[in-house]
């Protein structure tokens, strides 16, 4: 048997190995791809769960902070109201604060009946 015969036998053996081995390799490769996709899906799921837990904890902390802020504001308002003689004194205090911060040249202040005193005389012209 010469070099040609050995080449043909080697080629035939390579062809048989390739015909048997390639389908086995494809199955192996697909199994590895499936395992990689499963691992990625599990990892993505775990990341999503951790992000959801972080958002939940953040929302709980923000809600607790808002409750604490509201309780502090309520206590401060109660202290102011009590030190100013009750709700009417507190409302008068808020009215004075609002008047101090305005830049209006003419301000109408309500009377006991809740109606403003008008300045009808200011606009009339004296007929002298």
From TrEMBL:
Q: Where are the transmembrane segments?
A: 6-23
Q: Name one GO biological process term.
A: proteolysis
GO MF term list = peptidase activity
Which keywords does the record carry? Hydrolase, Membrane, Protease, Transmembrane, Transmembrane helix
The name this protein goes by in its record? Membrane protease subunit
